[in-house]
Amino acid sequence: MTKVLVTGAAGRVGANVVKRLVGAGVGVRAMVLPGDPQAAKLATLPEVEVAEADLLDQAAIDSACRGVTHVVHLAAQLVRGDTPVDRFYDINAFGTLRLLEGVLRGGGVERFVLASTDGTYRPGDPPAVPLSEDAPQEPADYYGTSKLLGEIILRNHAAQFDIPFAMVRFATVVSPEEAVEQFRLRWVRELLGRAELGRDSNIWQLFRGRPDLWKIIDEQVGGDADDRMAVGLVGPDDVPWTLHLLDVRDAVEGVFRALTEPGALGGVFNIAAARPTSFVAGSEIIADRFGVPCAVVRMPMTWRLEMTIDAARRSLGFAPKYDFASMVATAASAVGNDVIPARVWAGGV
Ligand SMILES: NC(=O)c1ccc[n+]([C@@H]2O[C@H](COP(=O)([O-])OP(=O)(O)OC[C@H]3O[C@@H](n4cnc5c(N)ncnc54)[C@H](O)[C@@H]3O)[C@@H](O)[C@H]2O)c1
Which spans are transmembrane here (predicted)? Predict the structure, then answer.
């Protein structure tokens, strides 16, 4: 009988993958970090078996892997905060290795799906626009590098121990309730405020030699502007900045297809919305929907982080359904939104 181990099952993508698999009648073991209050998301899915295991703990991983037929590996360290740098490598690279070892000790699986990231393509200074899967992977930050190491470790284990696998590289994953906060002044300030992190930011190349980009914005919108207003960034030649988003529901569909489609085996697939979102279009959608003022701000450089999804379309039949406008519409509507939000209060969904 099919049993899918989903790691990172309390996460933004993971909880929704679990729900999708359960909806398809598939048995699921949801691996969560011990004590994670976000595991409350899974309370509405009583048929799911929950296994607490830290990716640092080989014995707990071995036990989580016992008896499973497939693995979807989503657990990862994403955000720096107070996290020491070595934890990125320990979780995203060696955690993947421990999981693969757990799989082998459990007798192998029919398929191992790894979630990787556009962050492996050096998102602060992308080598191509748009990025295809064969673009150079020279991330130059520890999150992207640790995720790339996870990819390399999987490829090696797959070759050495005959593990059938597929990899998905997500664009920026957004849950609908998060979309309504994007392309607003405070979101833009936060994005550019990452310049303060210096090389601790995963897009530090974008800020190189420009540590005070958010001041450029303040000069153009006024220092006391409402931070909920919409802001579209353009480059010096008025070309809008772009960011490739991915609705969490399309991320789930990409994972599902990587897990089930025969054409996924041995492949790596960019998974993103049908088109990138321009900052100007995004800000106009926010302004229209929420009746807030909208400004275009000219920056000293252009940033375009875009992916092609041709391989996923071709080999997986992946056809993303959601763009930024529909994410915002979903969040603003009381009906038809059955997405498990990115974060829930400890008390429940
Ligand atoms: N969110 C994005 O924009 C984005 C973009 C590209 C790729 N990805 C990749 O997609 C996957 C899912 O991302 P998400 O947005 O759901 O992230 P998330 O942070 O919401 O979920 C990650 C989960 O991993 C778990 N985790 C962290 N450390 C762990 C450990 N030591 N042991 C066990 N579990 C641990 C966390 O508890 C969390 O539930 C990740 O692999 C991430 O690298 C995400």
Answer: none
